[in-house]
Write a structure and sequence with these properties.
elongated; 2 domains
């Protein structure tokens, strides 16, 4: 199926606006479990216990869509617990909430400010990915491409390859998108939850998903 450059861009932006926040949810959940385990190991550390509780309260406020409470709790998490991983996780959750509330400029500013202080490699890359995706969602595909170009040896290569494919589609580069999606699929297990959607993107870009192994 053929689409002109504008239509391709609009299709990607529309899809990302609805689903972009969920692409790294699995990674975030995994990191939350890691920090939770660190908390359990150091459960005598009152500071970390408080950080975990604050993050949980922030998550509850986000689920309830209580914008005022989210702002207060996120600020407290950043101010009092910036020496824990929960502060960065909270910033990512808050940025996603701001995006869903139509405040993309605020979300991007928050991500950039948090990224500048982040020392953990995994979290830093997730923030880079999220910054690039926010730029893409807001129609700045060229700037998004510059962000992903910084990730020479990504820790989450399948996520980065898929994002590069989305960027290429938005720029009208269907051949490049196909190659990016093929690389991303090659890095995923057959049962990966994101694989079916990625295969649809590949087909849309003119590619063909690899044949499923016979059972």
């Amino acid at each position: 199926m053929e689409y002109d450059e504008h239509e391709q861009s609009e299709r990607v932006r529309s899809w990302l606006s609805q689903n972009g926040s969920s692409l790294i949810t699995g990674i975030l959940m995994g990191l939350t479990l890691v920090f939770g385990w660190q908390w359990w190991q150091g459960r005598g550390d009152h500071h970390r216990v408080e950080a975990a509780g604050q993050y949980e309260a922030l998550s509850t406020a986000i689920d309830a869509k209580d914008a005022a409470k989210v702002k207060v709790l996120a600020g407290q998490l950043a101010d009092k617990f910036n020496d824990t991983g929960y502060a960065s996780l909270g910033a990512l959750r808050q940025a996603a909430f701001l995006h869903e509330s139509g405040k993309d400029a605020e979300a991007l500013a928050l991500l950039r400010a948090t990224r500048a202080k982040e020392k953990d490699g995994d979290l830093a890359e997730i923030m880079d990915i999220r910054i690039a995706r926010m730029l893409l969602i807001t129609g700045k595909a060229d700037e998004a491409a510059k962000e992903t170009a910084k990730l020479g040896s990504p820790r989450f290569p399948a996520v980065v390859d898929e994002l590069n494919g989305d960027i290429a589609v938005a720029r009208g580069q269907r051949d490049e998108a196909r190659k990016d999606y093929e690389r991303a699929i090659g890095l995923l297990d057959e049962g990966a939850p994101t694989r079916p959607l990625l295969e649809l993107k590949l087909i849309d870009a003119g590619g063909q998903p690899p044949a499923k192994p016979e059972t």
